[in-house]
UniProtKB/TrEMBL annotation:
The keyword Lipid metabolism does not apply. It comes from the Bacteria. Belongs to the ABC transporter superfamily. One of its GO terms (molecular function) is ATP binding. InterPro entries: AAA+_ATPase, ABC_transporter-like_ATP-bd, ABC_transporter-like_CS, CP_lyase_PhnL, P-loop_NTPase. The keyword ATP-binding applies. PROSITE patterns: ABC_TRANSPORTER_1, ABC_TRANSPORTER_2. Residues 16-241 form the ABC transporter domain. Keywords: ATP-binding, Lyase, Nucleotide-binding. This is Phosphonate C-P lyase system protein PhnL.
């Protein structure tokens, strides 16, 4: 199945479900060495849940998150996503379907900001709203409110973020995703390079998203953040491929 109009393949409230997922890497420039990261992995996340991916360094947390976002193609299994009134399997979906799911349903915050150079910060945050038909003035208002909440000084809004500090870039990254109310959010250490105050603001944003019903899967190295946002934990240690 790629896209199914029958959402009953997902139980009520389940937004994303991975089944039998396996991921390995073949290092062609290292004599074809094969790294099996995980296999037979099943997980699901429902509305209003924040699932914390746990496990030691190298357990495969980021690889799993990238597989859930279809950045990595797993060797086996499926990643079912509730998208509008359909269910899409991101492992077999066409690229245009994946982009459509990412545009409206599935938000992803990576550790690093990757944006088109020379685009001013405010435009980067406004754009996801205007492409969805939000009135430009309202989109700008919402983007500005969020940037201010994330303590990006207004003097920086007209500048592209390439020269911003690591923490500022991370907060722009967060604003670009959180300006929309995505039904599903994937978060890869969104608070990693933030100071205490900004960490608390981002913690609040995550918790607000969950309370409005977002299904969230995240990696958080900070124990305080994990305790504040997590509703359930998923340990990858046991899912290591044999
Ligand atoms: N693109 C890639 N090419 C080759 N190997 C990779 C790639 N991405 C990840 N790996 C390998 O997969 C394994 C899992 O890495 P991953 O980054 O998913 O772990 P992690 O649990 O997120 O670790 P950390 O907590 O240190 O960030 C590691 O052994 C890593 O070397």
């Amino acid at each position: 199945m790629t896209t199914s109009p029958d959402t009953r393949v997902l139980e009520a409230g389940v937004m994303m479900k991975a089944e039998g997922l396996a991921k390995s890497f073949v290092l062609h420039n290292q004599g074809g060495v094969r790294l099996d990261v995980f296999s037979g992995l099943d997980l699901e996340v429902g509305r209003g849940e924040c699932l914390i991916l746990a496990g030691p360094s190298g357990a495969g947390k980021s690889s799993l998150l990238r597989s859930l976002y279809a950045n990595y193609k797993p060797q086996a299994g499926s990643v079912l996503v509730r998208h509008d009134n359909t269910v899409v399997d991101l492992c077999s979906a066409e690229p245009y379907e994946i982009l459509e799911v990412r545009r409206r349903t599935l938000g992803y915050v990576s550790q690093f900001l990757r944006v088109i150079p020379r685009v001013p910060t405010i435009d980067l945050v406004v754009e996801p709203l205007t492409v969805r038909g939000v009135d430009p003035a309202e989109a700008r208002e919402r983007a500005g409110t969020l940037l201010a909440r994330l303590r990006i000084p207004e003097a920086l809004w007209g500048l592209p973020p390439a020269t911003f500090s690591g923490g500022e870039q991370q907060r722009v990254n967060i604003a670009m995703t959180f300006v929309q109310d995505y039904p599903i959010l994937l978060l890869d250490e969104p608070t990693a390079s933030l100071d205490l105050e900004n960490r608390r603001t981002v913690t609040d944003l995550i918790d607000e998203a969950r309370r409005r019903g977002a299904a969230i899967v995240g990696i958080f190295h900070d124990a305080e953040v994990r305790a504040a946002v997590g509703t359930r934990s998923y340990d990858l240690t046991e899912r290591k491929a044999a």
